[in-house]
Specification:
Elements (H helix, E strand, L loop, with lengths): L5 H13 L10 H13 L3 E5 L2 H11 L7 E5 L5 H8 L3 E5 L9 H7 L4 E4 L11 H10 L3 E5 L7 E2 L2 E2 L6 E5 L12 E5 L2 H11 L3 H5 L17 H33 L19 E5 L3 H11 L2 E2 L12 H4 L30 H9 E5 L6 H19 L6
Parallel strand pairs: 2-3, 2-4, 4-5, 5-8
Antiparallel strand pairs: 1-9, 6-7, 8-9, 10-12, 11-12
Helix pairs in contact: 1-9, 2-9, 3-4, 3-7, 9-13, 10-13
Bound molecules: pyridoxal-5'-phosphate.
């Protein structure tokens, strides 16, 4: 969480005083946020959900993904990306990331099989994926692209907001994200039919409440409707996001420029540095030993060792344990028999190598000039001590 304060308190108090706590009542905070967020992202529609995971599930459902389909996901993401694929009955296929810590377009292309229907590029740590290359591959191989922009709220790729480039985008507003209401999410798309399915997936009785005609047949799904408290907080958070992101972009640029000028330390390659979120300052070290020592001295985290963002930490997936009872496990379904579902701990060894050499340092929009100077000094000292050369500042 970055910025939150009196404005959010006032917005929630207003909802309580109005006694209109349900999202389909007049002057809906959720409805207002959805319209504003769609405009902000540059798409036709947005639908709020209870979480980023629910947003991914609804987006996949909207795109018609289901049993018999494979969906490609990167080796480095929060497990929810792969879990969402299983939630719609399809099978996740895991492919390598490259030095940018995002999905490798080559690995995507090589990972496509006869059953592959979609890919979920993940803008991990607010770092935009190589969307031009990915969209080229997707177009050539007729893949649906659903962007996991859960960590990319407020970021863009070459001027286009993350989440607006593929067929649909999914966002998380949980506590750790760039905008937050504690828990929450949203789906965005310019495909009206997809968004009708998303609405039904989010609230199977929504058509009753919002009085809108729909030309899809409604179906049963796990509801994940957002509350007016979430809508109220998100309307304030949306007013804050551009300043938050531009502060982090600016400090990240400054820190990287100063700490890489000597040529000793290398930043992780970036696809759209002028548009990224700037939430993490990332370096690629020559060896995992150097990365460990650097991370320790500087107070950073090795990307491979966050405890939950690399495929070898996704136990339920690696062990094909999906569904609460065996009959609900897509890995056992006849329809999925032709899908690839053999996972191993070293299946994406290239990713493990790169992630083991990648060090991430938290950025913060509230950093003062003095704190930035101190951080730059710490990074330079650690770089010099680990890589064995003195740096003249
Ligand atoms: C990349 C990514 N995808 C999906 C999710 C799931 O979002 P939520 O926790 O809101 O369900 C997260 C959340 O941490 C995430 O980081």
């Amino acid at each position: 969480m970055y910025r939150i304060g009196q404005e959010e308190i006032d917005a929630v108090a207003k909802v309580i005083k109005s006694r209109k706590l349900f999202r389909y009542m007049e002057d809906s905070e959720c409805g207002r946020f959805e319209q504003r967020y769609a405009r902000y992202v540059g798409v036709g529609e947005a639908v709020m959900t209870a979480s980023g995971t629910a947003a991914l599930v609804a987006a996949l459902a909207g795109a018609g993904i289901g049993p018999g389909d494979e969906v490609i996901v990167p080796a480095h993401t929060f497990m929810a990306t792969a879990v969402a694929v299983l939630a719609v009955g399809a099978i996740p296929v895991i492919v390598d990331v490259d030095e940018s810590i995002t999905i490798s377009p080559e690995a995507l292309e090589n990972g496509i099989g006869p059953r592959t229907k979609a890919v979920i590029p993940v803008h991990m740590w607010g770092l935009p994926c190589n969307m031009n290359r990915l969209m080229e591959v997707a177009k050539k191989r007729k893949l649906i692209v659903i962007e996991d922009a859960c960590q990319g709220v407020g970021g863009a790729y070459e001027g286009k907001k993350l989440g607006s480039i593929g067929l649909a985008g999914a966002f998380s507003f949980n506590y750790y994200k760039n905008m937050t209401c504690g828990e929450g999410g949203a789906v965005v798309s310019s495909d009206p039919r997809l968004m009708q399915i998303v609405r039904c997936s989010t609230d199977c009785c929504g058509f009753f409440w919002n009085g809108k005609e729909q030309d899809i047949r409604s179906f049963s799904a796990n509801g994940s409707r957002a509350s007016e408290f979430e809508g109220a907080v998100m309307n304030v958070q949306l007013d804050r996001i551009d300043d938050t992101i531009s502060a982090m972009r600016k400090s990240k640029k400054d820190i990287l420029r100063r700490t890489t000028a000597s040529g000793l330390l290398a930043a992780s390659p970036r696809h759209s540095p002028d548009w990224e979120c700037g939430t993490k300052i990332c370096y690629l070290l020559p060896t995992s030993t150097a990365a460990e020592a650097f991370a320790k001295q500087v107070g950073g985290v090795i990307s491979a060792k966050t405890g939950r963002h690399t495929y070898n930490e996704w136990d339920p997936i690696l062990n094909r344990r999906a569904g609460h009872v065996p009959a609900m496990n897509p890995y056992t379904w006849e329809a999925n028999r032709g899908c690839r579902m053999h996972y191993s701990l070293d299946m994406c060894a290239r990713s493990l190598g790169i992630l083991g050499r990648s060090v991430m340092i938290d950025n913060n929009p509230e950093f003062t000039a003095g704190q930035i100077d101190e951080l730059v000094g710490r990074i330079e000292t650690a770089g010099a001590s680990v890589l064995g050369q003195a740096v003249g500042r």
